[in-house]
## 1
Amino acid sequence: MLSKLTIVGLSQFQPDIWDNLNLPEGIDKEVFIDEVIRQGGEFSLLYPDADFMKYQIGVFSRKWYHNFERWLKAYNFEYEALYNLDVKATIEETGTNKEVASKKGTSSNDTNTSGTTTNHNNVENTAHSSGENATTKQKAAYDSGSFQNTEKEISGSTLNSNGGTTENGNTSNNQSTNITGNTTEDASANQEHNIITEEYRRGNQGVTMSQQMLLAEYNAWRSNIYVMMAEVFVSEFCICIYN
């Protein structure tokens, strides 16, 4: 049986070979080393020299650091297993509204009204009366068609026995109106707006059945981040030959 140097033997001979191992925060270094030994402890090492192996482990850390970091982020991602829709959209609208862009005008109204009204009323009445005014009342018998005088009233009056009454009217109306108007209108309004709309939709949009998503969740968590990382290490540093 040929002798071989394994990762277990090299770790016991020179434990500082793991000093250059640098893993993302959140990854337990001791758990990772234990998983590497569990998977490749019986395989021969590709680099049996301890110092060179220590250097190569540092190279391995720098090369796979970002990959392990992304794996860890996905491993710790919070989500709802039975939701296949989780969308958040932000819409921002910025602009200027011009309600009345520009309205300028001048209007002038001139009104000039002038008039003269002259009314002349000349009424001259002359009444002359010297005598009597007689009022006679008549009545017919029940069996007669002719009227007979029954009563007579006599009154006398004298109005301006020497002249009469004279009325003279003279009215003059002179009206002058002058109206001048000058109106200027300047209306301008600029309104700025900034509207932010957020839309958040989540849940099951009905494309995939809940049972399918539940099965996918189960298969996703069958994987273990330490197992996957150790597999990468063993594939790079171990000669996987079973005796």
## 2
Amino acid sequence: MRVGPLNFHSAHTLLNGLYLTGILTGSGVIFGLTGGMKCFLYTYRKILFKRTGRKVRPLISLLRVGLGFLLPLGFFLLNFENMADYYAYAILGVILGELIDRIEYYDELDIVTPRKQMLLDMEEMFDQK
């Protein structure tokens, strides 16, 4: 599965920026919409990989969802009296979750090198005969 230039992914920096903006400003709408979109895109990608036989790594995915979405959501809903505690733990969770997502994104890239392209072309050529 090749990743094209228009592939919308949960690790896109625009979504990351909006997600952090929602947390830092305390805007539940921005936080909820971007967090929901990022979680949906991440989960959809993992389901798609599972269906196509690609590696999924469920424990890493669980860690990513827990740290990147559930932990910040919990702190957002608890609404601490000391907001510094909320920001520190929520932002730490988001950053760790995003780091996991970014590592997975680069690990999942299917880069077509010249060698790989030649092998694909040869396979296609022999399959046609």
